[in-house]
Amino acid sequence: QVQLVQSGGGSVQPGGLTRLSCAVSGLTLNDIVVAWFRQAPGKEREGISCIWNRGSIVKYADSLRGRVIMSRDYPKNTAFLQVTSLNPEDSAVYYCAALQVSDRYGDCFIRTETYPYWGQGTQVTVSS
């Protein structure tokens, strides 16, 4: 059974940063593409980034480019997303998602419909 368990987030002051974790079980990081999304109240789910771990292909959405960094800890089978220079418009529920892929997949996509496995979401609230 594949599970993605998220942690991190919470309340952050404007200009600060947050680091979100996505612990994966049932698959290893090398066997999956991981993506991050967020959804603010009343808005559609928005793509942030994706990474094909085996080949280190990384993509970032234009709206957040330069403020986000994806990383991973292979022994802990955990992916991370760091978002910097936070502002109130970044307040949202953040989700990680995963897709099992072959060794030669060679790409990743920041589209919600691509991913069958999702974390439970974690709230990030940016306010002073």
Classify the secondary structure makeup into a structural class. Answer: mainly beta
Strand and helix order: EEEEEEEEEEE
- Radius of gyration, rounded? 14 Å
| Distance separating the two termini | 40 Å
Number of helices: 0
How many strand segments?
11
Search tags:
128 residues, mainly beta, seven-stranded mixed beta sheet, four-stranded antiparallel beta sheet, 11 strands, 0% helix, globular
Descriptive notes:
By secondary structure, the protein is mainly beta. Helices cover 0% and strands 50% of the residues. The protein is built from no helices and eleven strands. It has strands at 3-8, 10-12, 18-25, 32-39, 46-52, 57-60, 68-73, 78-83, 92-100, 117-118, 122-126. Strands 2, 4, 5, 6, 9, 10 and 11 form a seven-stranded mixed beta sheet that branches. A four-stranded antiparallel beta sheet has the order 1-3-8-7, with no helix packed on it. The relative contact order is 0.32. The model has no long low-confidence stretch (mean pLDDT 95).
Summarize the structure.
With 128 residues, the protein is mainly β.
Question: How would you summarize the topology of this molecule?
Answer:
Elements (H helix, E strand, L loop, with lengths): L2 E6 L1 E3 L5 E8 L6 E8 L6 E7 L4 E4 L7 E6 L4 E6 L8 E9 L16 E2 L3 E5 L2
Parallel strand pairs: 2-11
Antiparallel strand pairs: 1-3, 3-8, 4-5, 4-9, 5-6, 7-8, 9-10, 9-11
